[in-house]
Amino acid sequence: MERFAVIGLGRFGERLATLLAESGAEVIAIDSDQEIIDDIRDRVALAVCMDATNEEALRAQGIDKVDVAVVGLGTAFEDNALVTVLLKQLGVPRVVSRAATAIRAQILSRIGADDIVNPEKESAERWSSRLLAPSIMERIELAEGFSLTQLAAPEKFYNKTLEQLDVRKKFKVNIVAIRRTVEETDENGARKSKQFVISVPMADTVIMPGDVLVLIGSDDAMLSIQSQ
């Protein structure tokens, strides 16, 4: 089970922490407002009222042990930047930081942020899916809870035909295309990558390592496939 820290519980942060926890993840929620902490306490594994710019306080709460930290402080950009730096210094593998402008996003990326989130343009639901299923490469919502998704083929799918996998029956999704990258050698002996699309996968189509599946189905089904 992955461990998440959500630092800053505004509308976006509170919703994201709740969605992650509801999906079974272990979530540490942090904010400097005690009332907000009291409100979310029963929905996450741990809720802490503290100053997130304090390195020792972060370490004391085990933030250095989380897999992903999301920094969504809405007070001052300087605080977001400082917390981002502290988290990377603590060794957090993936830090997602909030930025409302392109310049701020560029600054955060340069000081260590692995991803940037703009809560004014992106929903907590979308980021919950991205964090819980990092192998999902692209998602287009078709209806509520239903999407067209590009997903890196799970290792358990390798070298099996679509008939053997029978994902339509097992997961209630349809594979509508497969993106595949192959290595070729040109006339000068140089190797290069070439990508092509299997636009009509058949029952005897074999899933190869590195394939990207284009799927239509429910978001829950996509998460189930990603966990294979």
Brief synopsis:
The chain is of the alpha/beta class and 228 residues long. The protein has helices spanning 11-22, 34-40, 55-60, 77-89, 102-110, 124-132, 162-165, 167-171, 219-226, and strands spanning 3-7, 26-31, 46-49, 68-71, 94-98, 115-117, 136-143, 146-152, 174-185, 191-198, 212-218. The chain folds into two domains: 3-132, NAD(P)-binding Rossmann-like Domain (Rossmann fold, 3-Layer(aba) Sandwich), CATH 3.40.50; 136-226, Regulator of K+ conductance, C-terminal domain (Alpha-Beta Plaits).
Q: Main sheet, how many strands, which sense, barrel? A: 6 strands, parallel
By CATH reckoning, the class of the largest domain would read Alpha Beta
Strands side by side in the biggest sheet = 3-2-1-4-5-6
Proportion of residues in β-strands: 25-35%
Our count of domains comes out at: 2
User: For this structure, what is the CATH homologous superfamily of the largest domain?
Assistant: NAD(P)-binding Rossmann-like Domain
Structural class: alpha/beta
Question: N-to-C SSE series?
Answer: EHEHEHEHEHEHEEHHEEEH
Strands, total number: 11
Distance between the termini: 14 Å
Gyration radius, to the nearest Å? 20 Å
| Helical residues, percent | 25-40%
What best-fitting shape do the alpha-carbon axes yield?
globular
CATH topology grouping of the largest domain: Rossmann fold
Counting H and I runs of at least 4 residues, what is the number of helices?
9
Low-confidence stretches: none
What is the level-2 CATH architecture name of the largest domain?
Answer: 3-Layer(aba) Sandwich
